[in-house]
Every structure is written in structure tokens, then in C-alpha cells.
Sequence to fold (324 residues):
Amino acid sequence: LLVVSVSVVLGAPSGVHNVTHVDYLMPEVQPKQADTYLCNPLKMGKEVKYIIGFEPHANMAIAHHILLYGCEEPGSHEVWNCGEMASKTSSYKVGPVCSSGAKILYAWAMDAPALTLPEDVGFKVGGDTGINYLVLQVHYKDVTSFLPPKNSHDSSGITMTMTDTPQRRRAGVYLLGTGGYIDAHTVTYMETECPFQEKFDVHPFAFRTHAHGLGMVTSGYRIRDGQWTEIGRQTPQKPQMFYNSTTPGLVIHQGDILAARCTMKNDLDRRMYIGSTQNDEMCNFYMMYYTEGDDIIPGTYCFSQGPPSYYWADDINMRNAIKN
Ligand code: IYT
Ligand code: CU
Ligand code: CU
Fold:
């Protein structure tokens, strides 16, 4: 929203190195209902920029999570209500996070420390990257301080470290997930897998899981020559931020398979479908990675139909992988 400090470091041997700290905060908002999700857009310029650091500013008693998205087109141009369960009685306009081209770039939840990107890694934004806007989403858990008698306001957000100096390594986020449903009183595996066909190598360094109430554990793997190596594993009942990859230094190259599984436990009396509201479920594994150079994985998703129509073993590539 506003640039607070601009520090220009001159005289580095390789020339001018511009690093700015951008405070990207909610503009003193006052959500009045618990579990409101608010979004705030930030337009990117014609010039390409690199985000090389994130620092969260939030009070965990008030903000449950913060997500930073890249959008082609934002859901709105002024602060709006952008929840999975946006209420029509909200005083804010209701809309999606992005109306097109949504990508997650960063997540903070519940007192998590700042995610540090590896050296020389940057998210490329603006210019011709397809990220024309950033959208900051804050989930307001507790709104009592915004109501009388306090009537206070909130400016949670993040400070981004940005530069226009091209970085040696480019960051990206790849999302694995499923559709499908979980029958009442069952434990169900929701699985997906995709061949990795790119010519460049990918270095996963962090991951995030997302599910609603039924998610027990979610894991992601690289499969090479039938051998499975874990990229990450976490219960989505813990804060849904980016955690460091569980196999540091793992490299994905052409011919590998990327796979993910969500183990869901449904004790309810009704079938739960994957869908976009809080009354639905979700099965997501986000892999944050970098490449040496300027490439990112072109298709950002690996979604399967999920149960009961799809399981790993139904897929020919996966069958080959399991057999070896
Ligand atoms: C149905 C489902 O799985 N929705 C997820 C994944 C998702 C992410 C993005 C779907 C779309 C996106 O553009 I980015 I369409 C989902 O909504 N996940 C939530 C956020 O809304 C992204 C999450 O917290 O991971
Ligand atoms: Cu939240
Ligand atoms: Cu969800």
C-alpha cells in the first residue's frame, strides 16, 4: 500500500543495487464479524521486481492467518471481503481473492517466524510475469477489539524486501490437490500425481498444507525410479504456514513424478465434498521451490479428480512407479 523506507546501497562492485522495504498493510480496517477474511490489493508496475524477503506484522490474538497472493486481476480494487465463506451481511463488498491468475506467494499463521528465502532467491513480479497485482489476505479471528467500547482498527500485514536487480534464482509455488469426496464415517486417501516434464531442475525448499476440519496429515513426494522421497509432511490442524522441506537439498528433474496425499477422517454423518466453502473440504499441498535461472513450472496445478474415481494406483505412471 505504501512504501515506507527506501534504502539505496550504492558502490557495490557490480554496480547499483536497489533494495526497498515495502510496508504492505491493511489500511486501518475494522471488520465486525469473527472469521472475516479481508483482502487488500497492491498494483505492480510495468517494471519487473523481485521479492526477496517477507516479514509478518500481526497479532495472533486478532489475525489467524495472512496469505499473500499474486493475481493477474484482483477480485476488487478496494479492501473487500474475500473469504471462503464470505458473508453477505458483511459491510465490505464480497468477492474472490483474484478474479484471474491466482498464485500463493507467502503464508503466515499463528505466530510463525518469518520464512527466509534461500540465498539469491526472489519471486519475480510485475512486468510481463502475469502477476499484475499482489493481494494481501488477512483472516480476522477475533473482532472484539474492533467493536465498542474499543472501536480499534487493524493494520496487519507484511514488510516485503524488494529489489529490481535480477536474482540468480527464481521462486515459484506449485500446488498439488484433489477434488472428490469423503464418505461419512471413513478414513479416505485423497491422492494426486503428475509427471515433471520440464528441462530445468526444481529445488523445493518449503511446503504448506491446507485442509479444513477433516485433514489428518498431508504429504508430498518426489518419485524417481520407483523410489519415493518426502518433500514435506504436516498435519493441516497445525498452523498452515510454509514449513521447511523435510528433505533439504532434494532436486526434481525431468522424468520425476510429483505426488501428494491427504489423509482425511470423516466422523460426520454426511459425505464431505471438496469445494470452496468452510462447509466443504480441501486437499492441498503447496510446494515452494526455486530454479537456477528464470524458469518456473508453467502449469501451477496438479489436481486429480480424487476419491472415489481417482487413486494413485489408478494412474499408469504411478503404477509403473509403484512396481519398481
Ligand atoms: C478447491 C480447493 O482445493 N481450493 C484451494 C486451492 C486453490 C488455491 C488457489 C484453488 C484455487 C486457487 O486459485 I491459489 I481456484 C484453496 O482455496 N485453498 C486455500 C486458499 O483459498 C488458496 C488455501 O488456503 O490454501
Ligand atoms: Cu486463518
Ligand atoms: Cu480451504
About this structure: The longest helix spans residues 316-323. The pocket of copper (II) ion (ligand 2) is lined by residues 64-65, 139 (CB under 6 Å). The chain has one helix and 23 strands. The first strand starts at residue 2 and ends at 12.
